[in-house]
């Protein structure tokens, strides 16, 4: 095969490919078909998240010590009509150790994220149980101090 024949074969192949291309390209006009109306939502500039309250867990008398923290937020819980507070319990190193439902159902959360039901308790008793504080004389959920401005 001579160089001239090779070039001729390449040009013939290119012409064949270009002739077949409009069949494939003709199926798409470049504009997608519009089905139905556009779903456009107006977004708020403000965060719609529910307020979250953080409290310190103080255990012991006469000199209470911080044993952990409780984060409480409003939720609609399992088909209930009214919102309730769900409480997430953290140890003093801010590791999540459990949660307490609005009805008092207490669940311990292990290091791998598994949950184990512990029972139903008042929030103070549930916090003592989840923090392994034993039978403390007194537990108090105190508000977090305001951040320092500096």
Task: Please explain how this structure is put together.
The chain has 150 residues and is of the alpha+beta class. The protein has a domain at 52-143. Helix content is 21%, strand content 33%. The chain is built from two helices and seven strands. It has helices at 3-25, 123-130; strands at residues 52-59, 65-76, 83-91, 96-100, 105-109, 115-120, 139-143. Strands 6-5-4-3-2-1-7 form a seven-stranded antiparallel sheet, covered by helices on one side. A hairpin with a 5-residue loop joins strand 5 (105-109) and strand 6 (115-120). The chain is elongated, with a radius of gyration of 33 Å. The termini are far apart.
User: Would you identify the regions where 5 or more consecutive residues have pLDDT less than 50?
Assistant: none
* Largest sheet descriptor: 7 strands, antiparallel
Rg, Cα atoms, Å: 33 Å
Helix segment tally: 2
What is the gist of this entry?
This protein is α+β, with helices and mostly antiparallel strands. Helices cover 21% and strands 33% of the residues.
List keywords for this structure.
150 residues, alpha+beta, seven-stranded antiparallel sheet, 7 strands, elongated
Q: Which helices and strands appear, and what pairs or packs with what?
A:
Layout: H1 3-25, E1 52-59, E2 65-76, E3 83-91, E4 96-100, E5 105-109, E6 115-120, H2 123-130, E7 139-143
């Amino acid at each position: 095969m001579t160089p001239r024949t090779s070039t001729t074969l390449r040009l013939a192949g290119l012409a064949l490919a270009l002739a077949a291309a409009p069949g494939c390209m003709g199926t798409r006009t470049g504009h997608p078909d519009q089905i139905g109306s556009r779903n456009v939502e107006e977004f708020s500039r403000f965060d719609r998240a529910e307020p979250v309250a953080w409290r310190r867990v103080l255990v012991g008398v006469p000199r209470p010590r911080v044993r952990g923290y409780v984060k409480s937020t409003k939720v609609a819980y399992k088909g209930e009509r009214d919102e309730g507070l769900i409480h997430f319990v953290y140890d003093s190193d801010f590791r999540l150790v459990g949660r307490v439902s609005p009805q008092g159902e207490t669940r311990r959360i292990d290091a791998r994220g598994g949950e184990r039901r512990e029972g139903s308790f008042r929030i103070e008793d549930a916090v003592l149980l989840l923090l392994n504080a034993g039978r403390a004389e007194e537990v108090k959920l105190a508000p977090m101090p305001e951040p320092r401005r500096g």
